[in-house]
Amino acid sequence: MSHIIFLHGASSSGKSTIAQALQQKMAKPFWHISIDHLRDCGVLPLDRYRRGEFDWSDDRSAVFDGFHQSLAAYAASGNNLILEHILDTPGWDRDLRDLFRPFDVLFVAVHCPVPELNARERLRGDRPVGSAQRDQSMIHAGRVYDIEIDSMDGIETNVKAILQAWRSDLRQSEFNQSFA
Ligand SMILES: Nc1ncnc2c1ncn2[C@@H]1O[C@H](COP(=O)(O)OP(=O)(O)OP(=O)(O)O)[C@@H](O)[C@H]1O
User: Fold this and answer.
1) For ligand 1, atom 27: residue with the closest CA
2) Residue 26 falls within a domain, yes or no?
């Protein structure tokens, strides 16, 4: 059975940083995958959306549906995934729970204190400061995780905690088959 380690946190909470470090520590190959990777390698005609030639709101749903189904297809073919993603749209949680049913999913909350989130956004300089704070205040509500980590504990501690949870085989999140 393929494994999916799902890092769920606001933008700038540290998901990519943790995913990269975790990938180096796993005893088996794990893909590190995110919608950002599609965005950044030219799969989508982003410049044409930005110029207004296409309307992103017409296409967003199809893009993410395809992304979500591709994740399940990768896993169904025997690939293990470290997924970083944000469940910020109604229905995505249900879609992913259905798609990931055949797989072993470790659902990880990545938290970060608000002043640090704002500082990271300020440093990145490519997004409005405060948007991550807004996301963070909403995306974790009602979620049930296997493990919750705080980015301020440091990458090494976070990776160790995730590895320990993954190896424990104890799964209690909303992605678990027996979750009621
Ligand atoms: N533990 C940490 N301590 C200090 N800085 C960190 C830490 N983790 C990440 N950062 C920094 O915070 C910024 C955002 O980190 P990262 O890209 O990992 O977050 P993310 O959650 O993947 O964000 P996004 O969803 O926007 O891609 C980066 O500049 C990164 O270097």
Assistant:
1) 11
2) yes
Q: Which atom of ligand 1 is closest in space to residue 154's alpha carbon?
A: 1
End-to-end Cα, the chain, rounded Å: 22
CA dihedral for 49, 54, 57, 62, sign (positive or negative): negative
38 and 70 Cβ atoms separated by less than 8 Å: no
**Residue 108: pLDDT band with limits 50, 70, 90:** very high
Going by C-alpha positions, the residue among 52, 49, 44, 7 that lies closest to residue 145 is 7
Return the CATH number at 8.
Answer: 3.40.50.300
ipTM above 0.90, yes or no: yes
With the most atoms of ligand 1 within 8 angstroms of its CB, the residue from 12, 18, 152 to mutate is: 12
11 lines ligand 1 (CB under 6 A): yes
* Domain around 104: 3-168
Residue 14 CB–ligand 1 contact under 6 Å: yes
Domains in the chain, number: 1
Q: Which of 14-18, 45-49, 175-179 has the lowest mean pLDDT?
A: 175-179
Could you tell me if residue 176 is inside a domain? no
pLDDT digits (tens, 9 = 90+) for 112-139: 999 999 999 999 988 888 999 999 999 9
Distance 162 CA to ligand 1 centre (A): 17
